[in-house]
Design brief:
Strand content: under 5%
Largest sheet: none
Distance between the termini: 37 Å
Shape: globular
Length: about 130
């Protein structure tokens, strides 16, 4: 079991930026071996019959659950609208993250800062839809 990815929500930081910064820890993992990542990432969507893929899928489920709990904490703190279902919001945000990850890892060179900027931009729209108004 790996340590939690999502920590306490930082009330001073923009939600989309905080999400992107947190997800970048995973980007950094995949960036360690881009050639292997380009093979493994597509396989995860369709093949989970080997123990290595199952470990990755288990981590993905863990991260999505942590994200839902983080969004619930943000909701409780008044940063996310009260009517937002954290599980549904987490599923949407995680789908955007995984799509952005697959798109990013195919580029040469694999640059973390470019991935961070793109991910923050992609997350800005759904975060705007769920964020509480100041």
């Amino acid at each position: 079991h790996l340590p939690p990815l999502f920590g306490a929500a930082d009330a001073k930081q923009d939600l989309a930026r905080q999400l992107a910064d947190t997800f970048m820890q995973l980007h950094a993992f995949w960036a360690r071996s881009p050639e292997l990542s380009r093979i493994v990432l597509p396989q995860m969507e369709f093949y989970n019959s080997n123990p290595f893929t199952e470990q990755i899928m288990q981590r993905r489920r863990q991260v999505q659950a942590e994200l839902a709990a983080w969004l619930a904490a943000c909701r409780d703190a008044g940063r996310v609208r009260r009517d937002v279902d954290p599980d549904q919001a987490a599923a949407t945000i995680f789908a955007i993250y995984t799509s952005a990850l697959r798109d990013w890892i195919t580029n040469e060179p694999v640059e973390l800062e470019r991935g961070r900027e793109r991910l923050a931009w992609l997350l800005a729209l759904p975060v705007a839809a769920i964020a509480s108004q100041p």
